Amino acid sequence: xxxGLQGRWALVCASSKGLGRACAQSLVGxxxxxxxxxxxAEALERTAAELRALNPAVQVRAVAGDIATEAxxxxxxxxxxxxxxxxxxxxxxxxxxxxxxxRAAWLAALEANMLTPIELIKATVxxxxxxxxxxxxxxxxGAVKAPIDTLGLSNGARSGLTGFVAGLARQPRLAGRxxxxxxxxxxxxxxxxxxxxxxxxxxxxxxxxxxxxxxxxAAIPAQRLGQAxxxxxxxxxLCSAHAGYLTGQNILLDGGAYPGTF
Length: 262
Hints:
The chain is of the alpha/beta class and 262 residues long. Helix content is 46%, strand content 14%. The longest helix has 29 residues, at 103-131. The protein is globular, with a radius of gyration of 18 Å. It starts with 8 loop residues before the first strand and ends in a 9-residue tail after the last strand. The model has no long low-confidence stretch (mean pLDDT 95).
């Protein structure tokens, strides 16, 4: 299927690795010009080179910096001639016990996982509406749907973003102008980040990394971890010209791990 995105411009945050990179890769494959961001310049440039090789017909611009800062956002937006597609993404805050988190920890989580996406939406959404096309995808977490007790910082910040989006996405001046805002909720995906988390669990329990990963996969009805490429493909579908009637939704991609009806 032609997604109808050729020649569009996308800003994909935190996209040198993992799920953000997979989203950028899928969009580039559909003929979308991309601005990719990350804090690590070396990994970001490697990804940019790989994306350019994937589709020499598009422009790929790499902007190193922290998207959770005002300067980082300004630099990323300045590199994008117009933002037709915005993919909000940021690393999750660390796990722990809420009794150990001070105010600074909460503010950092809110800045990265709630306020930064809102600031980027604010900077781009009205121009999208004026042009009559816009797609915003927020990468949040399956923990928004089924909270994990040790991820309280993430649960709180991402749930705040989810509530904000639920109201904004349904404004007629956006939805009625072909601007959609949706949240994409990943479960367990085979990424570097998950590997580090599972490695820490293995060290604590005395198991091998392979054993811990196999146990995690066995708990998922699909009997496997998700692959970043399939996450990126779904992101591209949400950004497509055919997805204009889909907005304000939380789409869970977790291999069936969430046990609820709704």
